[in-house]
Design goal:
Helix content is about 0%, strand content about 40%. The protein is built from no helices and 7 strands. The N and C termini lie far apart (about 35 Å).
């Protein structure tokens, strides 16, 4: 899926829920935008700050992808062939 924000200023945060059990990634200009990493301090993945276009986090339990898109930015959301796991020791 491709997303483009046509606006003069600002940006938006988008959340998409997927019914299929795949992981998804955000691509900007053909390059993978890394998702936000788990924070040991917060004990969670931090919330999106909106500091750059394509900032994203994927929640595999809720099957949702959140990402930010700023004015004039065009990005793609693509499925990934990976398995995400959470291990507690």
């Amino acid at each position: 899926m491709n997303y483009k924000l046509i606006a003069e200023t600002n940006g938006v945060r988008i959340q998409v829920r997927y019914e299929i059990k795949d992981a998804f990634a955000v691509m900007l200009g053909g390059e993978l935008v890394p998702e936000l990493e788990f924070s040991d301090t917060l004990k969670a993945v931090p919330a999106l700050s909106g500091s750059y276009c394509g900032e994203n986090r994927f929640n595999p339990v809720a099957q949702t992808l959140q990402f930010t898109i700023s004015a004039g930015c065009e990005l793609s959301v693509v499925p990934r062939s990976i398995i995400k796991a959470s291990i507690r020791m």
